């Protein structure tokens, strides 16, 4: 029964203690170091004395023991350097501890899964299928859908920008058309005024001609 405080609120349960991580290398850490040393030995074995001596034919003929000692020293020095650097990286990156932590996480997950299945709350059919057993189509969708969504959002943003620019251009075009219509109306009005003035001037010229004719007739009387 949980213990209640004076306010009647049950305190939150204490967190479970962390799973202790062993300091000795686990299976994965051991396999990792074994793989490295195996690869290193394969690399060193590729540097044979025969291939090394072929690069120094005169020394190999006159002082083969000295050349072999030089080859052995170089090989041992390279091996010692590679091993020391590997050990330094293991210590700096805490590789063994991290791999052991991974072992603990996997073991805890397996234990939880087994307990969950044993309790009858789930069956083997409800356990998610591993990725290599899935069909190609859902795998492709799972990988490409985030990319497609990202590209679609970018295209939508570009489309909105283009639509906004087009709306601005259309507004500017309508404004220019209105200005052109206003200028055309003013031009037509000016042309009409010019035609009216021309008609008035024509009438004035006719009146002047009639006046001169009248003066001529009066002068003849």
Task: Jot down its keywords.
single chain, disordered N terminus, 221 residues, kinetochore, elongated, mainly alpha, 6 helices, 76% helix
Helical segment count: 6
Beta-strand fraction estimate? under 5%
* Helix content class: over 70%
Helix/sheet category: mainly alpha
Tell me the Rg in angstroms: 50 Å
Q: Total strand count, please?
A: 0
The helix/strand order is HHHHHH
Concise overview:
The protein is mainly α and 221 residues long. The chain has a domain at 27-119. It has helices at 27-45, 49-53, 57-62, 64-93, 95-118, 136-220.
Detailed description of the structure:
With 221 residues, the protein is mostly helical. The protein has a domain at 27-119. The protein contains 6 helices and no strands. It has helices spanning 27-45, 49-53, 57-62, 64-93, 95-118, 136-220. The longest helix has 85 residues, at 136-220. The radius of gyration is 50 Å and the shape is elongated. Residues 1-15 have low confidence and may be disordered. It comes from Erysiphe pulchra. Its main location: nucleus.
